[in-house]
Amino acid sequence: MTMIVLFWLVVGSIIPGPGKAAASLRIDFYAETSCPQAEQIIFTQVQKILQNPEFNNAPAELLRLFFHDCFIKGCDASVGRPVPEKDSIPNKKLKGFEIIDMIKEALEKECPGIVSCSDILALAARDAISLSGGPFYPLYTGRRDSKLSFNESLNEIPRPFGKIDDNLKLFTDRGFTVRETVALLGGHSIGFISCQFIQPPNDTYLPDDFKEEIRQKCQNMNNNFSMMDPVLIFSVEISFRNSLLRIADQKKGPPLFRHGVNGQRRNSCRRRRIRVRRRFHFSKRPHHSLD
């Protein structure tokens, strides 16, 4: 299910935290290496890829891939290692690996052995956001790739049908507040949800016209269903009232959101508070960090 945790998580994952690994990260890390053109090569490759209709969902795929990588032990490209992380159930349907491979190949031709896969993924996700109409943000680089793959991916990635308290704990364990987590859950504005996650459409919570729309779209279970506003993808000035928080008010959010944020009063209050604060948008920096 391509449900993307958006800009805050990306920003949170690129702000260096404490520790030796974080201390080595800096803006324009590769400018002082034998591959000063690394970021430009990545940007050019992402630009070419996005022009290919075959990769029309690449921004969502890269951002989701980046999230799954960073959420488990930090941004270290461990998500690409088959056992156990890449092959775990939450990661089995991740896409975008071939895009990273294409970019890596282009970099290796120019400056072999210099740019880490973890930095390629971070930069590619950033550039895909920017080229999709979103903000271009400074990115700390200088990561090194993990030689390990982690079992935590089996239990630590938020589940689409997970209880809201369980998903909240996954985020609070990583330094997110409840308020930030609710905002993140409501920040989905790019990508699609698979029909398998919204079948059968017999939820009494849903409006009849929306249930009929789902039935028509999901006659083929291999279809994807977009409940996002494509016009609003990564608008810099977008507020959370223009995302799934607004869709949830119309009772048209996906299951995780309907039965999670909408279904619990304490988060509903926070949701409303977030929604009405018009200046609460992507420029607000989180207080936490993921290395």
Task: Give the total of beta strands.
Answer: 4
Proportion of β residues?
under 5%
Mean pLDDT: 71
Distance between the termini: 25 Å
Structural class call reads mainly alpha
Under CATH, the topology of the largest domain can be stated as Peroxidase, domain 1
Shape: globular
CATH architecture of the largest domain: Orthogonal Bundle
**Domain unit count:** 2
Main β-sheet description: 2 strands, antiparallel
Into which percent range does the helicity of residues fall?
Answer: 40-55%
* Helix-strand sequence: HHEHHHHHEHHHEHEHHH
Topology of helices and strands:
Blueprint: H1 7-14, H2 20-23, E1 26-27, H3 38-50, H4 58-71, H5 82-86, H6 97-110, H7 117-131, E2 140-141, H8 153-156, H9 164-172, H10 178-185, E3 193-194, H11 208-217, E4 224-225, H12 244-249, H13 255-259, H14 265-276
Antiparallel strand pairs: 1-2, 3-4
Helix pairs in contact: 3-6, 3-7, 4-7, 10-14
Q: Can I get a quick summary?
A:
The protein is mostly helical. It contains 14 helices and four strands. It has helices spanning 7-14, 20-23, 38-50, 58-71, 82-86, 97-110, 117-131, 153-156, 164-172, 178-185, 208-217, 244-249, 255-259, 265-276; strands at residues 26-27, 140-141, 193-194, 224-225.
Structure overview:
It is built from 14 helices and four strands. It is mostly helical and 291 residues long. The chain folds into two domains: 7-156, Peroxidase, domain 1 (Orthogonal Bundle); 164-276, Peroxidase, domain 2. The chain has a two-stranded antiparallel ribbon. Its cofactor is Ca(2+); heme b.
